[in-house]
Amino acid sequence: MLDPTEELSPFQLREASMDDFPFAEALTRNNMGGYYRRHHLVWRGDLFLASWRESENFILEVDGERIGVLRITEEGDSLHIRDVQIAEGHRRRGAGTYLLNMSHRWARARGLQELQLRVFVDNPAARLYQRMGYRLAGPRLAQLGSIRHMARRV
Fold first, then answer.
1. What SS3 class is residue 21?
2. CA 6, CA 22: separation in Å to the nearest integer?
3. Strand 147-153 to 56-62 pairing
4. Does 26 map to a domain?
5. How remote is the C-alpha of 29 from its chain's centroid?
6. What is the C-alpha to C-alpha distance for residues 116 and 73, in angstroms, rounded to an integer?
7. Bridge-partner residues for 149, per DSSP?
8. Three-state DSSP class for 19?
C-alpha cells in the first residue's frame, strides 16, 4: 500500500485500531443521523461493528486531532469505499477529496479496475463524487430508493 503521508498535505492518514472505533461510530452516526431519519432507517451499532471488523479502517488527522474516517473493502476487481466521514467544522477544506484521492491511488496500486461507493440521494457529497469522476452505476441498490450506487474506473 502507498504511504498516505508522502504527499505534501495538512492531513495525516493512519490505520485505525479498535481504540478508534467509538470515535468512528459516533462520527458516522452523527453525520448520517439526519439521512437515516429522513429515509426511515434505523441505526444498528451491531451492523456497524460487523462492518468495521470486515473493513480496512483509517483515521484522518490534522495536527494530531482526529477529524475523519475512511473505511474500504476490496471485492473482486473493485475497491469499495464504505465510509468517508468528516467532522463538522473540517468539511469543505479538502479532507474528503484527500480521502477519495488516496482510495484511487490504493486501487491503482492494487491493480484494481474500479472504485465504488454508495451515497444517499439527498447527500450533497454526491456532487463531490461526480466532480471526481463517479457516475451512477446501475440499479444495484434501487430497491432501497434512497441510496445511489456510484462507480468510477481506476
1. helix
2. 28
3. unpaired
4. yes
5. 13
6. 10
7. 118
8. helix
Residue with cell 468495521: 52
Structural domain of 106:
11-153
- Residue 141 domain flag: yes
For residue range 76-95, what is the model confidence (pLDDT) as tens digits? 999 999 999 999 999 989 99
Is residue 105 scored above 60 in pLDDT? yes
pLDDT band at 146 (very low <50, low <70, confident <90, very high): confident
Q: CA–CA distance from 97 to each of 42, 130, 140, 146 (Å)? A: 28, 12, 25, 23
CATH of the domain at 106: 3.40.630.30
Q: Is the pLDDT of residue 67 over 90?
A: yes
pTM of the full predicted structure?
0.89
Tens digit of each residue's pLDDT (9 = 90 or more) over 8-18 = 789 999 999 99
Q: Which of 94, 12, 8 is nearest to 61 (CA)?
A: 12
In a domain, 6, yes or no: no
Give the total number of structural domains in the chain: 1
Whole-angstrom Cα distance, residue 28 to residue 7? 26
**2 inside domain:** no
Mean pLDDT of 89-104: 94
The answer to whether 30 and 39 are in contact (CB under 8 A) is: no
